[in-house]
User: Which sequence fits this backbone?
């Protein structure tokens, strides 16, 4: 939202700059700018290897797991809490899911390995595990008033090692063939379906923008000029379709096609060209992002989360059950950790003992780089996802350039602090809290 | 005599051994403004917070229109058509005026989503009535002036057709002009038949706006008098000495 500085009478249109007319969120613009800057710098340093379709594809699937959890972390931080246990919770959930699909379901229920029900039952078990553990932590925080920092610090130690104990520290796998489709490169839509999804998404986005405009006009609120709406719609369409085009430009290597040409719709490997297209894991992230954004902006739950973050006393005096709200938020993070666990373990093909180690810090950093304020009340879902992208780009960019491991973490740490400092300066300048 | 709108009978609450409100009784009738006076810490805010559901009383009874009421939370209080304007305003600073006005009672679309458009339109309507200069509908209330924030808090209490209104220092943050607007509003609401509890330190203002004033000291009720029957000096001595001169005389 751009603030009209003079707050002139509604029917007199004050002169506005180009950006003001577009009514774009300047902070969103800043974050996208920072992300693009990171990409361009690494592209120069790697002589064009960073911005190849292949690397963009990899970057995307590497970001998914942290980004899914970061959307939930936004709600936690907005309500002035913190969750240090997400990485460990992810490990316990993947341990449960790995044990379920390789041992419990086959041995106890007699489902054969590879039975079509296994992956889905497994995922449901995982999500329930996440919800129960997250909800229990939320109950301790909301109803027993133990600080979230302590509960989830304890959770970090407990769930990291419950996962270890359940699996005796062993790597569990290989995981179900359908399950690992959620990992990234192992499960993609292919070129045609990626275009279909891209076009449907574009049409829906433009329709949503248009209907928002109609609603505003219906309530006689000021709307941005038609040309500005058109420009924004153009940006959205180009962004969605451009993203699909880039992913579709990453073609399957010949040696992979040669293994089984029929998978790629060819009879023989020679002359067969196939693209990976949109990975399922990215679709999962997109669905999570949409659902979480709708919760944040269009539901009472979201309204109460932000109200509680802005002023907990006021929220309580307005009749909001802030304790139950805390349970719901932490249960949500639990579910998202389990979902991130599906993606992370599917990507590896195994459950490993150290899966998700230090993810809690990446997730918190992503949310904070994305503009979520630790003082509460402020944060966006898209910000957290862009934050996760920036973190991942830095990390894999430095790895590609050949920066030594210790320097990598030093840079990431410095960027985290710098990002928050810039955000504070921006808020001071604009007077927005 | 008519049944009082609100009757609080022998109400007490203690915090860690301190009796913040000690066996206090007070009543409020429809179309009446009752002022609560007393030093800081006399127990005025605590007394009304038991009515608004922010605190739970240790003992005593509350009757609303003659029926015994059980108020255990702010939501219960709202269900009895009691609205409160807190001294702190109780606004979520990060949200805009409409979100604050409807907080906890959002208007929703048939699909159950919050209907921001309709809430903003309603907010615009009530704000033009309460504070014609109010324009910053889209901005978080932290960007508003003290007076504007106050009008959001007042709008929230007035919008939902309250029968009983509690105003804890509604004019503390306001300029002269805005204070007059609040005074006019109180008179208007009173003529509509609302019962209003008003807390203020300004004795003169209280003499003008209230029908009766109740003075508290150290958690106890010193006395309740009709404003016609007392002078400002009488009230001041009640506040300071904690004795009702009329009873003594």
Assistant:
């Amino acid at each position: 939202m751009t603030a009209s500085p003079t707050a002139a009478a509604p029917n007199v249109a004050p002169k506005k700059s180009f950006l003001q007319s577009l009514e774009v969120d300047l902070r969103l613009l800043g974050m996208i700018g920072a992300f693009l800057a990171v990409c361009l710098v690494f592209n120069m340093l790697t002589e064009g290897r960073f911005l190849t379709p292949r690397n963009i594809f990899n970057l995307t699937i590497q970001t998914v797991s942290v980004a899914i959890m970061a959307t939930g972390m936004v709600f936690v931080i907005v309500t002035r809490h913190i969750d240090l246990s997400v990485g460990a919770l992810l490990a316990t959930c993947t341990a449960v899911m790995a044990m379920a699909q390789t041992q419990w379901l086959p041995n106890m229920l007699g489902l054969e390995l590879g039975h079509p029900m296994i992956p889905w039952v497994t995922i449901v078990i995982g999500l329930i595990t996440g919800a129960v553990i997250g909800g229990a932590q939320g109950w301790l925080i909301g109803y027993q008033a133990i600080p979230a920092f302590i509960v989830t610090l304890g959770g970090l130690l407990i769930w990291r090692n419950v996962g270890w104990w359940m699996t005796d520290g062993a790597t569990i796998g290989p995981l179900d063939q359908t399950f690992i489709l959620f990992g990234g490169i192992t499960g993609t839509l292919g070129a045609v379906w990626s275009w279909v999804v891209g076009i449907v998404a574009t049409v829906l986005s433009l329709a949503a923008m248009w209907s928002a405009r109609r609603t505003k006009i219906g309530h006689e609120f000021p709307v941005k000029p038609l040309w500005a709406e058109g420009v924004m719609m153009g940006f959205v369409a180009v962004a969605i379709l451009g993203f699909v085009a880039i992913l579709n430009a990453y073609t399957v290597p010949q040696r992979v096609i040669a293994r089984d040409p029929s998978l790629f719709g060819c009879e023989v490997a020679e002359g067969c060209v196939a693209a990976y297209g949109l990975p399922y894991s990215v679709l999962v992230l997109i669905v999570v992002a949409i659902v979480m954004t709708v919760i944040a902006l269009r539901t009472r739950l979201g309204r109460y989360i932000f109200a509680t973050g802005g002023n907990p006393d006021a929220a309580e005096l307005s009749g909001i059950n802030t304790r139950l709200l805390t349970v719901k938020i932490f249960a949500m993070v639990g579910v998202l950790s389990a979902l991130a666990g599906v993606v992370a373990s599917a990507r590896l093909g195994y459950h490993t003992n150290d899966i998700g180690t230090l993810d809690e810090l990446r997730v918190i950093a992503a949310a904070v780089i994305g503009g979520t304020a630790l003082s509460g009340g402020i944060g966006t879902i898209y910000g957290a996802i862009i934050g996760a992208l920036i973190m991942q780009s830095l990390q894999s960019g430095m790895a590609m350039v050949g920066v030594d491991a210790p320097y990598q973490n030093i840079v990431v740490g410095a960027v985290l602090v710098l990002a928050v400092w810039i955000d504070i300066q921006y808020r001071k300048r604009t007077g927005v809290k | 005599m008519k049944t009082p709108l609100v009757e609080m009978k022998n109400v007490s609450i203690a915090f860690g051994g301190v009796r913040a409100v000690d066996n206090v009784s007070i009543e409020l009738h429809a179309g009446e403004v009752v002022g609560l006076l007393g030093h800081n810490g006399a127990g005025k805010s605590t007394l009304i917070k038991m009515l608004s559901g922010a605190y739970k009383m240790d003992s005593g009874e509350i009757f609303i229109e003659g029926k015994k009421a059980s108020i255990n939370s702010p939501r219960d209080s709202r269900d009895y058509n009691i609205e409160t304007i807190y001294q702190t305003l109780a606004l979520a600073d990060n949200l805009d005026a409409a979100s604050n006005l409807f907080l906890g009672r959002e208007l929703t679309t048939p699909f159950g989503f919050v209907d921001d458009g309709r809430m903003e339109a309603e907010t615009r309507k009530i704000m033009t009535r309460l504070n014609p200069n109010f324009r910053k509908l889209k901005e978080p209330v932290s960007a508003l002036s003290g007076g504007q924030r106050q009008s959001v808090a007042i709008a929230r209490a007035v919008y939902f057709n309250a029968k009983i209104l509690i105003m804890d220092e509604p004019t503390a943050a306001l300029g002269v002009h805005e204070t007059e607007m609040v005074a006019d509003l109180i008179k208007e609401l009173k003529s509509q038949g609302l019962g209003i509890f008003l807390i203020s330190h300004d004795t003169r203002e209280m003499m003008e706006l209230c029908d009766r004033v109740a003075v508290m000291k150290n958690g106890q009720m010193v006395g309740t008098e009709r404003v016609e029957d007392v002078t400002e000096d009488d009230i001041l001595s009640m506040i300071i000495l904690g004795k009702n001169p009329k009873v003594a005389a």
Remarks:
- The two ends of chain A are 14 Å apart (CA to CA).
